[in-house]
Amino acid sequence: MAILRKRARVDSLAEVADETLAEVARYVNASVRSLEGALIRVVAYASLRGESATPNLARQVLERLYPCGERPECTVEDVQEAAADLFDVSRAQLLARDRTPRVAYARQIAMYVAREVTHETLPAIGRDFGGRNHTTVLHAHKRITADLAHDSDTLEAVDALRARLNDRSADRA
């Protein structure tokens, strides 16, 4: 709760009640980054829908967004395969130096989700994405995080990728 309160204060999220923060903390306990990411997602989702961030809304968002919870852990390869399937590109294209907008966007979404749902470091994720530098992964994460706040297409893409991971994870469990 202290981490979430501090994040809410730093981001000037005065409208987020302690009950909502408690709901986020109840769903996410993996890391500070995961906690902060969950809070950002709940606030962004509420903002896109023109609602306030309530405990019920947090519950709805987080039930869909954390696919790897108690199930077997997702890997970067799992994320890549699900992203390739979702965006109709090959896994090889995600790993290649292809900079076409469609492939680059799919790769950035995949890097963002890989950072959120795996316990891999930035350098490890970069290596798994064709030997990229950790700063590339960080840039992708920052860009998608910023886009989540105002772009409903990005929010839908992240949600869809997490749903695919959830389905795959449930199949393995």
Structure overview:
This protein is an all-alpha fold and 173 residues long. The protein has helices at 2-10, 18-27, 32-49, 55-65, 76-87, 91-95, 101-117, 122-128, 134-148, 152-172. α2 packs parallel to α4, α7 (101-117) crosses α9 and α8 crosses α9 (134-148). It is globular and about 45 Å long. The model has no long low-confidence stretch (mean pLDDT 86).
Mean of pLDDT = 86
Order of helices and strands: HHHHHHHHHH
Query: What can be said about the biggest beta sheet?
Result: none
Extended strand count: 0
Count of helical regions: 10
Structural class: mainly alpha
Range of helix content: over 70%
Gross morphology: globular
Poorly predicted regions are none
* Proportion of beta-strand residues: under 5%
Radius of gyration: 16 Å
Query: Span between N and C termini?
Result: 30 Å
Brief overview, please?
This protein is mainly α. It is built from ten helices and no strands.
What is the topology?
Blueprint: H1 2-10, H2 18-27, H3 32-49, H4 55-65, H5 76-87, H6 91-95, H7 101-117, H8 122-128, H9 134-148, H10 152-172
Helix pairs in contact: 1-3, 2-4, 3-4, 5-7, 5-10, 7-9, 8-9
